[in-house]
Task: inverse folding
C-alpha cells in the first residue's frame, strides 16, 4: 500500500484508508471482517467518530483492530456540541474507551460549532501533552476557517482537514485544497464514491470512467480513487463493509492515471463554479 506523510506529523499513512460512516447499518460480523482485511492489505488509516452510530461504530472499529493497534493510524472526531475545553477532553476519553485503546493517532473537530475554536484547540494540545492524542486536525473547514485554525494553533500543528470530495463534487479544489497546501495541511477526502451516487455506466461521465477503467484493467471505483488522490497531500477513506469491496479499494493505490486520463475525467466531471458554502453531503 502506498503511503504519504500526513501533513506536518511526519507519520507515513496509507493513501487509501477505511471510512466507517454508517458502518453500524451493515452486518456487524461482515463489517468487522472487512476492517481486518483492510489492515492485512495495508489500509491502516481507519477513520471513525463519536457521532457514527452514536458510538456504536467506534465499538465495532475497536473490535476490528483488536490485536493490531500498533499498526493502525486511528482517527476519531469530536462533535461540535461537545467541543468546549472540558467537553473535548471528555469526548476523547469516551472514544478511547469505546475503541479499546489508550491513544488516538488523530483527533478532529467534526465541524465548526458554537464553542470558540481556541477552546477546542487548547483541549487538543492538552490531549497531546497527556499522550492521549498524537496529532489533531479539523473537518469540514472552509478556507477562512482553516486560516483561523492555523492562526490559533500556530504553524505545523493542524494535521489535516477532512472534507467531502468525489467526482461529482470537486468544490474543495477552488479554495480548500490551495489553503491546505499553503499551510502543509493534509486533505482527507470522505465519501469518495458520492454516498450512493456513483456515476452509472449509462451516463456520459460514467462511460468515460468505464472506458478508462477498461484501459487499465481496473474498475470505475478504482479509477475514481486514483483520480481523487493524484495530488500529493490528499488521502481518501472510502467505506467498505464487505471484504470484496475492501480488496477492490486497496488495489486502487497502485493505479497510475495518465495525463490524458486525468484530462478526460476533468472534462467529464467539470469542476463547476465556486460554491458559497462548503458542501458536506
Result:
Amino acid at each position: 500500500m502506498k503511503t504519504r506523510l500526513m501533513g506536518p506529523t511526519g507519520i507515513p499513512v496509507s493513501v487509501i484508508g477505511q471510512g466507517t460512516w454508517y458502518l453500524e447499518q451493515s452486518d456487524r460480523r461482515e463489517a468487522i471482517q472487512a476492517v481486518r482485511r483492510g489492515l492485512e492489505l495495508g489500509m491502516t488509516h481507519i477513520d471513525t467518530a463519536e457521532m457514527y452510530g452514536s458510538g456504536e461504530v467506534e465499538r465495532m472499529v475497536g473490535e476490528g483492530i483488536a490485536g493490531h493497534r500498533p499498526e493502525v493510524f486511528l482517527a476519531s472526531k469530536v462533535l461540535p456540541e461537545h467541543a468546549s475545553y472540558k467537553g473535548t477532553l471528555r469526548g476523547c476519553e469516551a472514544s478511547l474507551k469505546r475503541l479499546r485503546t489508550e491513544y488516538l493517532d488523530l483527533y478532529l473537530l467534526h465541524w465548526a460549532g458554537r464553542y470558540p475554536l481556541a477552546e477546542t484547540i487548547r483541549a487538543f494540545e492538552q490531549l497531546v501533552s497527556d499522550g492521549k492524542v498524537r496529532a489533531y486536525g479539523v473537518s469540514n473547514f472552509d478556507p477562512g476557517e482553516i486560516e483561523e485554525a492555523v492562526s490559533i494553533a500556530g504553524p505545523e500543528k493542524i494535521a489535516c482537514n477532512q472534507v467531502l470530495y468525489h467526482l461529482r463534487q470537486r468544490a474543495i479544489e477552488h479554495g480548500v485544497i490551495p489553503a491546505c497546501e499553503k499551510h502543509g495541511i493534509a486533505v482527507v477526502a470522505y465519501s469518495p464514491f458520492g454516498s450512493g451516487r456513483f456515476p452509472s455506466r449509462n451516463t456520459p461521465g460514467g462511460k468515460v470512467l468505464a472506458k478508462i477503467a477498461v484501459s487499465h484493467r481496473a474498475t470505475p471505483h478504482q479509477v475514481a480513487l486514483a483520480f481523487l488522490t493524484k495530488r500529493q497531500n490528499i488521502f481518501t477513506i472510502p467505506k467498505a463493509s464487505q471484504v470484496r469491496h475492501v480488496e477492490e479499494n486497496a488495489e486502487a493505490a497502485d493505479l497510475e492515471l495518465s495525463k490524458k486520463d486525468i484530462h478526460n475525467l476533468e472534462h467529464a466531471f467539470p469542476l463547476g463554479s465556486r460554491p458559497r458554502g462548503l458542501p458536506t453531503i
DSSP finds ten helices and nine strands in the chain.
